[in-house]
Each structure stands twice: as C-alpha cells, then as structure tokens.
C-alpha cells in the first residue's frame, strides 16, 4: 500500500492519487495521515518524493489530503542520484545507491535542494516552516545555496522578508485589538491609524508578492515600524516610569 503511494508520488499521478480516496471504506479515507505520512526504507515520505521531483500539483493534492508539511527525515537518504532514471528507480525501491546524511530534511528542503521554486511556492502557501533546520544546521534556503539553486535561494529570501513584514503587521493588530496588551494606553486615533498603516502595507504586499525584491519588502517593513513608533512607544517602560504621549 505504501509502495503504491511512493510510485504515485514519483510519477506525479494526481488522478491515481485521487482514486485512492474514492472508496469511503479505504484506509486512505479512514486513516489518511497514517498512510500519507508513511516513509519508505530510506526515510522519504510521498510528499518528500513529490517535492524532490518537482511534482507541484501532487504536492498540493497530498497537502489537501493531510500530508504533514513540516515532517522531517529521521535517517540517511539519497539526495543526489546521478540521473532522473536513477531517482525514479530509487524512489520505488529498485536500485541501491550510497546513502548520504540528510537527517532533518523537510519537503521544503527537498524542493529547495533540487531547484523547484514552484513547489516551494505551494509548500510555503500551505504553511511550510522556512526556519526548520536539518542535521547540517541548514534551513531550506541554505540547502538551496549549497546546491547552487539560485532561483530557490531568491524565492526563500523573499519569503523570509515577506514573513518579517507580516509578523510586524500581525503583532501590531493583535496588540491593538487586545486591551490587556495595550493596557488602555492607545487612543481611538492610535487604533484607527495603526490598523490603517498595517492594512496599507498588507495591501501593498498582496499586490507585489510575486515581484517585489527583498530590499523593497524590507523597506516597507522599516516604513511601517517608523509609522507605528509613536503609538508603540507608549508601551515602553523606562525604569519604573511608563512612557505616555506626554513624556515622549
């Protein structure tokens, strides 16, 4: 059963995967996570295989069906076979290749190391953690750099910049909406302007997500932090004196 899933992942056969879920009594329906996250003898899951081979649509389908997006390998595995044929034969258990240490690899590491930015896009859009490190201490970004997959390095750099901007937006909105966090120190105008600044930057990010450079995104983050500084400074404490607007 698991071997069939690994073959489907290697071939990128989305329709065949969907067919496994047609029978409501099938284990794929009753215990999807258990089956979808099963690993082969080398430690790879179906999601790992699909990401490694650039099977973008199958990656999306596996995630929708319940594959664990941030699961990491727990044993040695082959990372760089010599040919596409060797990759395929290895994934279905029909060849032996010397193992190398890729402990701690996620599907994101796989897609990055093999140079598949389209798979990175699907994984990140579905919540892949770009900060997870493998046994070498590498995030997916560093793994891509090690194998000179420049398009993946660029994509992951932009993803990190986007996350940095979004974290400021999210943290600010959470603080504005939670009286315990802002401790009643924000005026109505503070809240309105703070939310407006965040919404404007979020709209900018949505409209420039695919084309903005890393530098442009960090510039937007810096601008937002400057706009929010007068409001957020009210939460700062110097010694035993809480800073308010009158003391700034």
Please state how the strands of the largest beta sheet are arranged side by side.
1-2
Q: Radius of gyration from the CA trace? A: 23 Å
H/E series, N to C?
HHHHHHHHHHHHHHEE
> What oligomeric state is this?
single chain
The N- to C-terminal Cα distance equals 67 Å
The overall pLDDT average reads 87
CATH architectural type of the largest domain: Up-down Bundle
Poorly predicted runs are 78-83, 92-101, 238-248
Strand share of the residues? under 5%
**Total strands:** 2
ANK repeats: 42-74, 103-135
Organism: Stylophora pistillata
Pfam families: Ank
Keywords: ANK repeat
Descriptive report:
It comes from Stylophora pistillata. Pfam families: Ank. By secondary structure, the chain is an all-alpha fold. It has 3 domains: 3-65, Serine Threonine Protein Phosphatase 5, Tetratricopeptide repeat (Alpha Horseshoe); 84-148, Serine Threonine Protein Phosphatase 5, Tetratricopeptide repeat; 151-232, Substrate Binding Domain Of Dnak, Chain:A, Domain 2. The protein is 59% helix and 2% strand. It contains 14 helices and 2 strands, in the order H-H-H-H-H-H-H-H-H-H-H-H-H-H-E-E. The protein has helices spanning 2-11, 14-19, 27-30, 32-36, 46-52, 56-65, 84-91, 107-114, 117-125, 140-146, 150-177, 179-182, 188-208, 214-232, and strands at 237-238, 241-242. The chain has a two-stranded antiparallel ribbon. Helix 9 (117-125) runs parallel beside helix 11. The chain is elongated, with a radius of gyration of 23 Å. The model is unreliable at 78-83, 92-101 and 238-248 (pLDDT under 50).
């Amino acid at each position: 059963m698991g071997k069939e899933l690994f073959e489907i992942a290697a071939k990128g056969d989305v329709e065949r995967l969907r067919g496994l879920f047609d029978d409501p009594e099938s284990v794929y329906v009753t215990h999807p996570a258990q089956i979808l996250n099963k690993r082969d003898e080398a430690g790879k899951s179906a999601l790992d295989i699909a990401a490694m081979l650039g099977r973008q649509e199958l990656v999306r389908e596996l995630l929708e069906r319940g594959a664990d997006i941030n699961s990491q390998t727990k044993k040695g595995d082959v990372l760089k076979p010599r040919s596409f044929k060797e990759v395929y034969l290895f994934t279905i258990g029909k060849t032996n290749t010397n193992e190398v240490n890729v402990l701690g690899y996620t599907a994101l590491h796989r897609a990055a190391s093999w140079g598949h930015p389209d798979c990175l896009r699907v994984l990140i859009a579905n919540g892949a953690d770009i900060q997870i490190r493998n046994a070498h201490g590498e995030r997916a970004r560093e793994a891509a750099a090690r194998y000179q997959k420049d398009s993946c390095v660029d994509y992951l750099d932009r993803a990190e910049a986007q996350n940095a901007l979004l974290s400021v937006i999210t943290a600010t909105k959470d603080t504005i909406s939670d009286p315990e966090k802002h401790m009643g120190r924000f005026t109505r105008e503070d809240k309105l302007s703070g939310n407006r600044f965040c919404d404007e930057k979020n709209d900018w990010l949505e409209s420039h997500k695919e084309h903005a450079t890393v530098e442009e995104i960090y510039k937007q983050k810096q601008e937002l932090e400057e706009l929010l500084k007068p409001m957020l400074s009210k939460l700062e404490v110097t010694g035993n004196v809480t800073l308010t607007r009158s003391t700034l």
